[in-house]
Design brief:
Blueprint lengths: L1 H26 L6 H31 L9
Helix pairs in contact: 1-2
Amino acid sequence: MLKKIIAPVVIVILIAAYYIGFAVFLIRDPEAPLLLKALMAVIAIALTGVGIHVLKLRADEIRSGVEDDLDKY
């Protein structure tokens, strides 16, 4: 079971690091407008939160033994 959850965790961490890193890079840019900085920070936080939520759903799916959720449809 542990092997099945490692890949989703690594992917979420990499994507979250990318979003947050891009937001930090933009926020540190002195020429970027304040509205753009705030918007980028909110978007990065929201996308990271969504990624964590999807990771939690995937972990629950793996723990339940249902690898494929197509049986719900």
